[in-house]
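During the first year of the project, the team set up a workflow for recording each protein of interest as an amino acid sequence followed immediately by a discrete structure-token representation. This format lets reviewers and collaborators read both layers of information side by side without switching files. As required by the reporting guidelines, we include two representative entries from the current panel. The first entry is reproduced here exactly as it appears in our internal archive.
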Amino acid sequence: MQIWTEFLATQQTSPLQQNNALCSLDETGLLYVGGEDASDFLQNQLSNDIRKLTPEQAQLSSLSNAKGRMLGIMRVIQIEGGYLLVLPLSILPAIQQELQKFIIRSRVVLADITDSFARFALVSDIPQALADDIFPNQLNQVYQSDSLIALRLQDTGQSQRYLLLVNDPQEAIQRWEKLAQNLAINDASSWRLQEILAGVPTLYPDTIGAFVLQMSNLQIIDGVSFKKGCFPGQEVVARMQYLGKLKRRMYLAEMACSDCPQPGDELTRLGADKADGSGRVVDAVAISPGRCMLLFIAQIDKAEAGELLLLKQPSSELTLLPLPYEIPT
């Protein structure tokens, strides 16, 4: 995709904005899972029900270890001959290595095909920007052609979000230029911000193995099936769902801080001078000098009592915001 890469180098990005933006997903990877046993293999490894996938319907899912701790969160798309796992490029090698351990005698092929596709995303509330029939109407609905995949993502407010994967560089350039007539061009932080605002968690190297999926609200946004049968960590996940009481969950917040926190940064209770297990940052993006938007996972009682602060920045001011989906009581 050298032509695509050279084209992107000519594009000028504008300051980060929340609506009507287009951005390249250089930090997003694509892991191909194919072979005769690919469906059964993924059914036994991922948290969601692969049997419900069709070429027209994708899903959010996760991979956990035996202790129920998530190793990665991904979107899964069924394509001709297999599946695509869409996930951060920074954790793709670790996920590929983890899945490889379970192939054994299965007829399954894993391949990093990130460089075979132009990857970009857009958010818009402008009807003319979304007039093309490639844009599906429903969440997780997929449009596919020989050269293009378009996936409808979780919305943020009144704006619609889409992920586009194009394996023809000339078509990718043409579609980008058409979209850029109505949309500002942002850098990859725009994608991260949109995921944060949509309340969709992302795992990075520093948060691999840090959370059970219910802590990240994955059960609320259809990232798990409790009826599909076994997968790594399933006993822990099921026990928490049916027998336990959830003590941690994910929150959306705006923060006044000198430096934007990083995934995995510790949150502590007021007055603490060292990590105390109160919470951790999932992801954060600066939205203006001295302010950032973030998702974090923390103990519910401390978060809702306003007792949390960043360990590295104890003077930071944390303001909880409503997530775009309802949290069950």
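The second entry, processed by the same pipeline in the following quarter, appears below.
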Amino acid sequence: MSIEEIRRLITAHAHKENLGLPGVRINRITDPTKPTPSIAEPILAFSMQGAKRIALADRVYDQVPGTFMTVAVDLPITGHYVRASRAEPYLGFALELRSSSIAELLVEAASGLPGILKPPPPGISINPATSEMLDAVARLLALIERPVDAPVLAPLLEREILWRVLSGPAGPTVRQIGLRDSSLTYIGRAIRHLRSNAFEPIQVEELAQLSGMGISSFHKQFRAVTAMSPIQYQKRIRLQEARLQLFKRPHDIAAVAHSVGYSSASQFSREYRREFGVAPSVDALRMRQEGEVTA
């Protein structure tokens, strides 16, 4: 099967809320979009048509047809579709990365996989998709039209896709997701703690302890994965949540600032403007007028 068949399947089924394939997402975008902040969770995301751009701190990633993006940990990104139209929509396929599925493959075939990278690799990478990967993706998507076969064949095809990824350049990164003692897993613990306690004061010493590292080593490895410091990461999470709340409460800026952990409304406004380019009051009004929701 070819990338043309994948495009056909995405076009035919992108409108469906339930594909009958757990962990699989497809999307069809017909217009370029504005840069939008969000939290990217562990995923493989293939571009089949059009193009999108992802920014993580000062790193920028452009994804074009025939490539796949690997996100290894929860990351606060800003993304937008830069090439999409009604004549040629953006078409994408994504597969959630589950540590249990990766771990099973590692147990069965660890000897045939690339070694672990130390220090940990960046949390996002983009690589060309092989013909074998695309063939497996096409066969997986074809199960949308054969729902009777899906419960049996979908898990096998997910394993095949993961194996193709693990065997290639992105393998050392994805492999770490399935290992309990990898450096990426330890950084992931700190990230999950940060997300769960984003609106509370944090102690970097506590995060380093959770990761089983010294403070200096933790700082270095956290930045290697996320392209930012723990404090910057927390700030991104807070401001993204504030932006979502402002859509719902555009006239209550002080209360929103307090709810996401800011004791000073003026500091909140300064950091919000620095992050999104406009004052929170202006941004809130614009979002309400345009009906834009970000998360």
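For the second entry, the following points were noted during internal review. The beta strands are 24-29, 36-40, 43-49, 51-56, 59-63, 67-71, 75-83, 90-96, 124-128. DSSP finds twelve helices and nine strands in the chain. Both points are flagged for discussion at the upcoming steering committee meeting.
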